[in-house]
Amino acid sequence: MDFIENIEWSVLMTNAGIIILKLLGIIIAFLIVKAIGNKVIRKMFNRLQERENISNGRALTLHSLTLNIFSYVLIFIFIVMIFQVFNYNVSALIAGAGVVGLAIGFGAQGLVSDVVTGFFLLLEKQIDVEDYVTVAGFDGIVEQVGLRTTQIRGFDGTLHYVPNREITNVSNHSRGNMRALVDIGISYDDDIDKAISVLQDVCDKLSTEDENIVEGPNVLGVQALGSSDVVIRVLAKTKNMEQWAVERNLRKAIKEAFDANEIEIPYPHQVNVEKK
Amino acid sequence: MDFIENIEWSVLMTNAGIIILKLLGIIIAFLIVKAIGNKVIRKMFNRLQERENISNGRALTLHSLTLNIFSYVLIFIFIVMIFQVFNYNVSALIAGAGVVGLAIGFGAQGLVSDVVTGFFLLLEKQIDVEDYVTVAGFDGIVEQVGLRTTQIRGFDGTLHYVPNREITNVSNHSRGNMRALVDIGISYDDDIDKAISVLQDVCDKLSTEDENIVEGPNVLGVQALGSSDVVIRVLAKTKNMEQWAVERNLRKAIKEAFDANEIEIPYPHQVNVEKK
Amino acid sequence: MDFIENIEWSVLMTNAGIIILKLLGIIIAFLIVKAIGNKVIRKMFNRLQERENISNGRALTLHSLTLNIFSYVLIFIFIVMIFQVFNYNVSALIAGAGVVGLAIGFGAQGLVSDVVTGFFLLLEKQIDVEDYVTVAGFDGIVEQVGLRTTQIRGFDGTLHYVPNREITNVSNHSRGNMRALVDIGISYDDDIDKAISVLQDVCDKLSTEDENIVEGPNVLGVQALGSSDVVIRVLAKTKNMEQWAVERNLRKAIKEAFDANEIEIPYPHQVNVEKK
Amino acid sequence: MDFIENIEWSVLMTNAGIIILKLLGIIIAFLIVKAIGNKVIRKMFNRLQERENISNGRALTLHSLTLNIFSYVLIFIFIVMIFQVFNYNVSALIAGAGVVGLAIGFGAQGLVSDVVTGFFLLLEKQIDVEDYVTVAGFDGIVEQVGLRTTQIRGFDGTLHYVPNREITNVSNHSRGNMRALVDIGISYDDDIDKAISVLQDVCDKLSTEDENIVEGPNVLGVQALGSSDVVIRVLAKTKNMEQWAVERNLRKAIKEAFDANEIEIPYPHQVNVEKK
Amino acid sequence: MDFIENIEWSVLMTNAGIIILKLLGIIIAFLIVKAIGNKVIRKMFNRLQERENISNGRALTLHSLTLNIFSYVLIFIFIVMIFQVFNYNVSALIAGAGVVGLAIGFGAQGLVSDVVTGFFLLLEKQIDVEDYVTVAGFDGIVEQVGLRTTQIRGFDGTLHYVPNREITNVSNHSRGNMRALVDIGISYDDDIDKAISVLQDVCDKLSTEDENIVEGPNVLGVQALGSSDVVIRVLAKTKNMEQWAVERNLRKAIKEAFDANEIEIPYPHQVNVEKK
Amino acid sequence: MDFIENIEWSVLMTNAGIIILKLLGIIIAFLIVKAIGNKVIRKMFNRLQERENISNGRALTLHSLTLNIFSYVLIFIFIVMIFQVFNYNVSALIAGAGVVGLAIGFGAQGLVSDVVTGFFLLLEKQIDVEDYVTVAGFDGIVEQVGLRTTQIRGFDGTLHYVPNREITNVSNHSRGNMRALVDIGISYDDDIDKAISVLQDVCDKLSTEDENIVEGPNVLGVQALGSSDVVIRVLAKTKNMEQWAVERNLRKAIKEAFDANEIEIPYPHQVNVEKK
Amino acid sequence: MDFIENIEWSVLMTNAGIIILKLLGIIIAFLIVKAIGNKVIRKMFNRLQERENISNGRALTLHSLTLNIFSYVLIFIFIVMIFQVFNYNVSALIAGAGVVGLAIGFGAQGLVSDVVTGFFLLLEKQIDVEDYVTVAGFDGIVEQVGLRTTQIRGFDGTLHYVPNREITNVSNHSRGNMRALVDIGISYDDDIDKAISVLQDVCDKLSTEDENIVEGPNVLGVQALGSSDVVIRVLAKTKNMEQWAVERNLRKAIKEAFDANEIEIPYPHQVNVEKK
């Protein structure tokens, strides 16, 4: 066993001592950083909850998510450091594994994108369950805001699963009063002033009857001189999600008032010229 | 053979000893990590199955897939480590082979993208065989959800093979009740109230007769003042996939009720003015 | 010749010995890996052929392709390793040649993309020669599925060369029965029930006469209340590629039955109002 | 305890001395750079505020934002330097963690993009709260300009959350006078000169009555020879946001003036040729 | 000259010897690789020419192109190796010159893309001079297939220069027989069977007269029930580029046969309802 | 204080000497390069101003911008070099900070893109304040050309802020004479030659009266045989920005000349066939 | 001054000697490479000019451009090499300055792209001043082909500045004869043979009269059976840029010939069915 004697045991020993010291240092640093990090995150969320007026459930979701991500990152760094102590260059191992790494990196990127967007959707309260929104080309009621996907129930009953990374611009239709708008055409032969006064009467009556109307309705004036009719615009502000009902009521009331006052809603017109 | 004597055998020996020790360490680490990893994955899937209410078959598919991926990654790392012990920098070899690596990386990236998306499609139950879905612009019944491709049978009989990476937004039409919507135009000369009451009678009768109707149908009111007709909207909620049959029944019943009550569904109108 | 004596021959000798040993090791490793790889690939394809029911010709094509790729990769690695033994960092050479490498890499990437997609097209049997498919916006009969390009013969006689990488979603119209669908408009004055019973008679007769019809045809009901006609939908399932002939027969039979029963297929209608 | 004696304590000591000196140097440098940086930023903003005429609130927001970013970057560099002193290559650690780093990098990139764009939106005063703007395809009144998102209230009541990075071109409709434009068609049988003089009379009257009109309105001339009418264009410059009201008033006045002067706004014409 | 004596001449000498040996090795390797490579390329093209039936001119073009590329790559590697011998890290020099290199790399990438695509266009015979093709949105006759650009003469006389990299899908209209298709509408009052028999007579006559017709023409049946006409489809297969002439002849013959048999090609119909 | 004695003071001293020498060298090089660079830039701009005929203000803007960029780059390099002397690898620090660097890099890239494009917009005089241009889909008068954004005032009063990087193609409508084009339809029953001679008379008269017309107007001939009219085209060249006024005058003059000569501008025609 | 004595002067001296030798070598290599390069470029352009028939001015432009680029690249390499001799890793400095480098790299990339495309536009003569071309969506006459931008004068007088990198496909309308095409509709009641013979007479007459016609015009036959007319196509080949004048003459001559021969160019037809 000449070979074993050749090994320089003393060097090995010294190295082993250094390694053990390093390991101890890393573990202690790890524990300290984790404790401090957790405390910082807890305080941050307490302050955030007070300041931004976030509901308890939402704050808890965000808090536990942040803690999870923090501990995963810490464990990852911890493992890499330990490997480096043993002189296995793990990060090079992963980075160097170009083929696999690149592919996985892109995959993971999608996930991270989803989670980051989901985080801000929750934090900035852009979207809430039960909201009527338009995101990524889909229109409907939000059923669930997850970290990876948001579920939107279309008005025809379809359930749309939208990955959060697809959500850039959010159009939220449940943030305040909505507008009810009716464009109504009258004949070129009718008197505009008379039509407007009839319309305003209808508006005033509806305004007192319908409690869903917040403001108006009011007659704005001549919106267009169409090919067969003079278009007059009526505008109102309604409670949220009541805009369609108000518009339907407005249309019915206007039609009936026009019938009573003999104002015509004209069909398309055409002048026929006989060829000489 | 002076040359062989020149070789420093003792250094070689020491190196060999270190290499053997390293190899042993790697193999042991490999076995331990594999055992622990398998256990962790098994437990994770057990908990997941309980919590998320996943069917047994689906859970098994996901479990074996996860185990496969885990062991492939482990073997890859194992091989690279062993090469590194012999001082062949394999990862540099692969990464450095820029031309080939880049090309293969992009190819493999597509595969990984497919598998990752497929994994989440299965895990989050966004898509099930027999579902009627719209994904990547294709409309149809899901025939198979694979890890690389999803097969969708279009209503015209075409079989669409969609790589999973092409599936971002999923519109699933088989997740709950659907809407039946019929817009019906009446003449400007007809009485709106009478038309609405006739329509509501039709709706009430159908509602009791047709067990596919879950809610309604109800008359919403005047949806639009068209160029030749007053459009009234009727809405119902039906059992899944029965929306078209309900709509067809509604249309037939409305047409017959209007004929009986002499309410006109008007043709397009045009006012002819004779040129003076 | 003082200079030659200055060279440290002993160091050179030792190095030469190590190099020769390394070369031998690489060659042996190369031979072993190649033999094992070939065996593994052969077994894999045997099992694949049994399980997936792939035709012999197709299996041979895929087998030889896989063997080729495997041996090219092996030879590439082999050459790089030998160069490294002589301390020429070949991979750095290639990777470092950034300008040329980047350009070629992108070029080669396209080729690899083509081959990878071609491989899966063949393996997953998404496309077969003689199939009627829609890929990359082209419609037609597949003439050839190559590793780089797929040739599709359009119905107007044009031959489309589609690089495989352009093929993502595959719509294969030759995978099972197809649908024949005829929408037919009847007059608002006609009786819907009578029209439906006439249509169903036509369908039943055709169903017994035409052996290309697999299921139906059946009358679904009132599909729409059009501006001038009540649209009724008829649906059938036919043998593959016979859907157009069945639709043509259906249309002719319906037209003749309607003529016989005096049911009108209406022209567009317009109500003319005289200007008072 | 032979092993502890083997450790070369003197080398360790020397290293420790160097490390302590380096740490001191870094901390001092850190403090100096921070103090200088803060001073420079303060002066820069003072000068900027004077020169660019920025409101106090806006300047404070930008100032504190710049200070925050500066101190984060400094702390980041500080930490990395300290780690390097202890020979842990932190930057390599982060960079090498290719998979995670790449993914997070892309996520963070989005955030940075948002903040950078937000910074310039505020600095260059392209957007102000209460402005009527068109950005990223959304039309409406700006409700809030944040560092990450801008909130725009659409005219129909919808609240659009637009991430700042989506804002490239900004169309601000609240920067000066707006244009009111009315195109009016007269009959081919009417005299153009007479129509223009009637129109100009209307314009002149309105110009004196309506204080929202800044310039004009003026009759430009024959804008087009349409299929049934000669189109004449009227143009005015109005106070901001009053363009629609002015256009409505113009249309009503023109219609009434034409009625009074018997100038016809023609319906679409068609020449009917009887088939011989 | 104390300084010159200080230089370790012996070390310099040894290095010089090693460098000269290395240079010799590189030059010899270069010559061998070049000779072998040329031979391999020549053989490859001989075999390719036999197997793929490529014309002599085309084979020569491809051969000399391949030889050129091969020798450029070899010379590039040769130069880099020689620089490395003198310890100037040329590849790092080029790669490190990030700014310039990146920019040039992208430029060169376009060129390489052009050449690679051009190579395959020539090799796979997707395009030939005088072919009628559709590539990159341009329609016309190929005038020249170069390595960088392809020239296509549009039917209106325009000469389109298309960089080869823009050519992905190639639609070649000069690869076999083409289809002539005529859709003809008959009146709803005409007898379908009679019309079809008249059409088939026309087709049979033309089929014997016109030698450009390869197959058919045949009457397929009722293609559609239009709003004013019953559409019948006629199909033929013609010699390449003769499809338009055949279609023109078909249309003229059908029109004349219909006139002779009093079958109407109907104008658009409209039912006029008088307002009660 | 055994520890301090252990430090190898002599080595430290030597290093310190080298460092000081290096620092001196760097500072001297810095000063020389700066002086030379400034001189070169000044001369370059002097020559440029003479040759390209650039206005003084514009030249000053470009000059000071170039000097600023040059000195920033120099200072950056200077700092990095000094850090390298102290063995802190600053560039690695920045580059290695992959996450932050990548994100900032992309942000800064946008700024640089803006500035580079702005530089060329100014230098090549593609855009001037007061020009009427179409860039990035926006139409209007240029109000300001900045280094980061260009401000364009739309004709409706909107102010568009366009980041320079969005400006690729510039369509400048203020670079020379413009075209006035009027297409006029006459009846199929009118004599083409008579109509053309009447039109040419109108053109000749206008040409002498209107000093905004540079060339023409001339009658080109029969531009199209429309469905109801024979379209004749009239073309003129006008002073810049006067094209619309000239077109309006042309239309009015033509209409009046046609009325005087009894040439009809026809309404859409339709042949009515009575159903037998 | 113990410290100065500690410096190992002899090592410094040796290094200085090596550095001076290296510098000399680099300078000599630089001069040789430059001389050879210039000669090679000159010869290349001489040969190119002879072979490709390039005008003198164009050849000079390309020649001086190539010389400039070559000398810039050489100077860049020269500077980097000299810095490397002094052990300042300049390339790392530039490359490492990731933030700035990346940003500038992208900016410079655009410039290089412009210049490369401009180079090939000039060399391959795809575009010439005075040509009528369609590039990057712009239609017009080329006014200037620069290395960075191409100026195109639109037919409406607008001057389009197109960066060369935006120019991929070039459609040059000034490369040979153009096509004149007139589609003319005759009545369904007219005799096709008579119409064709009248048309051919017109064509033959025009062909002898108009020297701008190179080939034809010829009557091709029945191009379509329209809804109200039988469309007949006439085709001619004309001198470049004369196609529009020829088409106008053709239309006028055909209209007059049809009037003389009482062949009708029909208005749109409609069959009116009276509602029973």
TrEMBL record, chains A, B, C, D, E, F, G:
Membrane topology: Multi-pass membrane protein
Span of domain Mechanosensitive ion channel MscS: 111-175
Location of the Mechanosensitive ion channel MscS C-terminal domain: 182-265
Subcellular location as annotated: Cell membrane
Domain Mechanosensitive ion channel transmembrane helices 2/3: 68-109
Top-rank taxon, per record: Bacteria
Keywords of the record: Cell membrane, Membrane, Transmembrane, Transmembrane helix
Pfam families: MS_channel_1st (PF21088), MS_channel_2nd (PF00924), MS_channel_3rd (PF21082)
Main location: membrane
TM regions (residue ranges): 12-37, 65-86, 92-123
Similarity comment: family membership: Belongs to the MscS (TC 1.A.23) family.
Protein name: Mechanosensitive ion channel family protein
Source species of the chain: Metabacillus halosaccharovorans
High-level lineage: Bacteria, Bacillati, Bacillota, Bacilli, Bacillales
